[in-house]
Design brief:
single chain, three-stranded antiparallel β-sheet, 3 strands, about 5% strand
């Protein structure tokens, strides 16, 4: 920001710094632009993890009493599930986007702590996959992760697939 521009004054976009100057001198980026980008990035609430190891026995008993096991027939195939009403009521399903459950540790990650299940635009990863390919940004919005984290997970998955394909040869 130039010295003659105050903190709250609008930026004159007609006198924009050339792109080559921004590459050579990152400080030429208007300060308000950086602040807006940072604010957008921080505006989404981060996911919250509930680690079973940190819960006391009393908390575990209270949770078990509040939510006793129910004997309801859950869908077992995609054909049965696809006909269900949306938003998907089966939050414990591994394809549901509201929760992630780590089978090794038993920890539960709530992906959207600021929303209720019925407020999610998409609740099933299989529904999103049926619509076709989406960008990293769109995957980030669906999973409440950053674009960079999605890219890292994609690379890790591709490396695992490459290792499995070598073993099958």
């Amino acid at each position: 920001m130039s010295a003659d521009q105050g903190e709250g004054e609008p930026i004159d976009f007609d006198s924009e710094v050339p792109t080559t100057e921004l590459v050579r001198n990152p400080s030429a980026v208007p300060e308000t632009s950086v602040k807006i980008h940072r604010q957008r990035r921080r505006s989404r609430p981060r996911s919250k993890t509930i680690a079973l190891k940190r819960l006391t026995r009393a908390e575990l008993r209270a949770g078990a009493a509040a939510y006793p096991p129910v004997d309801i027939d859950r869908p077992k195939t995609r054909a049965e599930c696809g006909a269900e009403a949306r938003p998907c009521p089966w939050v414990a399903c591994k394809h549901h986007l509201y929760l992630d459950i780590n089978p090794e540790t038993g920890s539960i990650k709530i992906n959207f702590p600021d929303l209720e299940v019925w407020e999610l635009r998409d609740t099933c990863a299989l529904d999103v996959a049926e619509r076709g390919g989406i960008t990293l940004d769109e995957v980030g919005l669906v999973t409440n992760l950053t674009r960079e984290r999605i890219r890292q997970l994609e690379v890790r998955g591709l490396l695992k697939l490459k290792g499995v394909s070598r073993e099958l040869r």
